[in-house]
Amino acid sequence: YYKIAEKIVGNENIRKEEAIEKAKAIMADNTLLEEIDRIYAEENIQYFYGHPVHYKIQAGDKDTALAIVSLMTNMLRSQARMIGSRINIISDIKENAYD
Fold this sequence. Notes:
The chain has helices at about 15-25, 30-40, 60-80; strands at about 5-10, 85-90. It is of the alpha+beta class. It has a two-stranded antiparallel sheet with strand order 1-2.
């Protein structure tokens, strides 16, 4: 009913300005730019505090989606909100997967 894959993405520390440049390079929409602001907000907890969030990524193709996921993983690691770089990707979800 769906596919699941596990990947390890890079461990690059990334500053907010770099994240914005990379997001614009992959032509991300405003929702990603808004999330970048939230991830780098001063009032955020700057240490690992359990699993911070689950994201639903929609992109034109899987390569672009993986680029977004890698960028977000590096941002969260850079802000000490994640301690690892292992991600699970659930894709090709069929309608009856929820039954």
